[in-house]
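Lab notebook, bench 4. Still working through the backlog of constructs that have no structural model yet. Next entry is a single chain of 201 residues. Request: give me the structure tokens for it.
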Amino acid sequence: MAEYIWGLCTSPLSLALIACRIQRRCAEIFEDSYDTYIASRYREYANNFENLATEMVTIGVSINDAAACDLVGGSYMRAWFSPIVLELAYLGDCTTFMSSLPAQKAIEYMWTCNIRCKSHLVPVCMFLPFVLLMPRFVQYGTTELFSLSHTRDRQVPTYPANNHERFWRFYNCPRVKHHFGLVSRHILLGILISPYKPEIA
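Model written out:
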């Protein structure tokens, strides 16, 4: 009956992942009460819904790669700050779904903002902004993922029209922010440790 109702809904992918979360939570409740049989049944239901969601996006890749990634990385409601599909999969502990090709591509796109740059060049570009003007080192993708659905972002990343947009997109990239935090912590740690360096006689 649940699968029949699921087939009639307008957002089957999101509701399948929500069902995974509910079923697995019910399984945890029954496991706490030592009712392993009912808990196993709930986990079986959760796995079935996760397989439905994974199969849906896997088939979607063969039809339209960009649209499938957009479906996984975009929000499922026309509401501000509505959770995206990846967040629902994380809450539902849907490891199989997260390992699917569309999910991995969406995660990679969100991490890099479709900016192709070697890892060892990211710190260089952070402190030498003029390097961003050299296409040889930093390349900006033109793919407009997450534009088909209503995401939480105000602006959909597109190919930068000018240098200001190029700088803005690079320094707002999660990958760059991670590198900046890592470098800053190392510099701060070096400053704090340097006064306590032992003197060599």
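Notes after review: The longest helix spans residues 36-63. Residues 147-157 have pLDDT under 50 and may be disordered. Flag for follow-up if needed.
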